[in-house]
Amino acid sequence: MSKQIRYTALPVSGGRSRWSPRREKTCIAARYTLVVMLFWAFFMLYALRVNLSVAIVAVVNLTALEKNLLPTVDPLLETCPRNSSVAASGLVSTSPEYGGEFDWDENTQGMILGAFFYGYVVTQVPGGRLAELIGAKWLLGCGIFITSLLSIITPAAARIGGAYGLVLVRVLQGLCEGVVFPSSMALLSHWAPKHERSRIISYNTIGTSMGTVVTLMVTGQLCSHENGWPNVFYLFGGIGCVWFVVWALVVHEKPESHPWISKQELNYIQKSRGYIAAHNVELPWRSILTSPAVWSLAVTIFCGNYGFYFLLIDLPNYLSGVLHYKISNNGFQNALVHLSCSLSMLLLAPVADSLRKKRLCRTTKIRKIFQAVGLLGPAVCLSLVPWAGCDHLKVITLLVTGMSLYAFTVGGQNPMPLDMAPNFAGTLMGITNGFGNLSGMAAPLITGWVIQHNDTLTQWRKLFLLASAIYSFGAVQFVIFGSAELQPWAAPAPNEKELLDEESTNSDHETLHLT
């Protein structure tokens, strides 16, 4: 007598079906495998982005640059002495460590550091829409893979093409990475249950923070050795290529096309993820672009990102040029600031999900509270940094506290594309994140323009206060205009909703008994 086996038909691309055994339960939920891979995706996303922030300290020959400068620095401006008491601890350099290969002034450095974002903002909206139309898995994976290859050729581009060669590579990297955030939202719109969104998205954000932490530490150590800066780009480029191979093998576009997902998990995801529109649904562009809630989200992301990128891109130069940290310790102090953000997110994301699941208050109120704390907290801390002067401990304490409070945005802006329009989450993420990342271009350019060879406390005070003001504006306008409710232009028609409920109940699958 032959044994009866239960099979499930799974719809796959191209209208074909394939047959695979369907288990009642699996040891590891399929969506958690995706979460782990997305964590490492965002780890690489930021590792490949931020390595230049510390490496540029070693790339630029500041000793030669300073000798060629005109005497524009006012001797009455505040400066931190190199022979401060902290030097005894080994954290601070008592003599310049400026032996880099290139003589690039602050404006050129600002252009190079901001070049990434010229490409990054261009592919946000196309990336989101393409992910909805053709699928997010390969778009996201190839985005990081090509960025990794470009990282490997970065040293050669700088040495052959100089500043403009490096700018070109960074723009291309930005174009490739620009599709990642929108693609991830499109992917999670199929996989993320409503009451797990903050937590799942928090792991993506923690991946960016941990990528920043590890990269800054490793970069600082590699750059502390003579001619060690090229190894930074070889190392992280190689790791990115390995990640892509694993991603291609284990990640699937939808739970319905996953060969090992359990019936229990599939039913749970389908019933709790919310409405997902068909890929060929026409976007209501006019409604999206005239929505106050969409623009409020875009503005608050811009304001939050401005302060974040200011610290991410320009803090290494502040620690090196003003507080005179050694390159090796520069990376460590930068990493400490972002590590505090990661740890805080781990604690805060479940709180946001719990508040929503227990329905203690409306989703919009939860998002506004978390976003307000996440922006006003850093605003206060950054406004106090200039008054800490050359006190290294106070400066680092304020920066760590500020980034710990910034972690509250994990329950604010981060899940909102899925809250507002789960069926258009990729496109909405592309629009808001694209606008928000214009600040990545602005922050280094403004820093280069303000500093203008006057690398002093007086000039940096202006920059910290400006970042504080932008943070504050982002929080206030979001509290007034923000909304996390399902938008009218994203809600399904009544007949579509009834069809969705019927399909969810039936699981969209056929059960067969084969002998």
Written description of the protein model:
- With 515 residues, this protein is mainly alpha-helical.
- Helix content is 68%, strand content 3%.
- The protein is built from 20 helices and 3 strands.
- The protein has helices spanning 30-59, 62-67, 106-120, 124-134, 137-152, 154-177, 180-191, 197-223, 229-250, 263-272, 285-289, 292-321, 327-357, 363-388, 392-406, 416-420, 425-436, 438-451, 457-481, 494-506; strands spanning 5-11, 17-21, 511-514.
- The chain has a 3-stranded antiparallel beta sheet with strand order 2-1-3, with no helix packed on it.
- Residues 1-21, 63-77, 83-98 and 496-515 have low confidence and may be disordered.
- It is a multi-pass membrane protein.
- One of its GO terms (molecular function) is symporter activity.
- It catalyses: 2 nitrate(out) + H(+)(out) = 2 nitrate(in) + H(+)(in); N-acetyl-L-aspartyl-L-glutamate(out) = N-acetyl-L-aspartyl-L-glutamate(in); N-acetylneuraminate(in) + H(+)(in) = N-acetylneuraminate(out) + H(+)(out); L-glutamate(out) = L-glutamate(in).
Topology:
Layout: E1 5-11, E2 17-21, H1 30-59, H2 62-67, H3 106-120, H4 124-134, H5 137-152, H6 154-177, H7 180-191, H8 197-223, H9 229-250, H10 263-272, H11 285-289, H12 292-321, H13 327-357, H14 363-388, H15 392-406, H16 416-420, H17 425-436, H18 438-451, H19 457-481, H20 494-506, E3 511-514
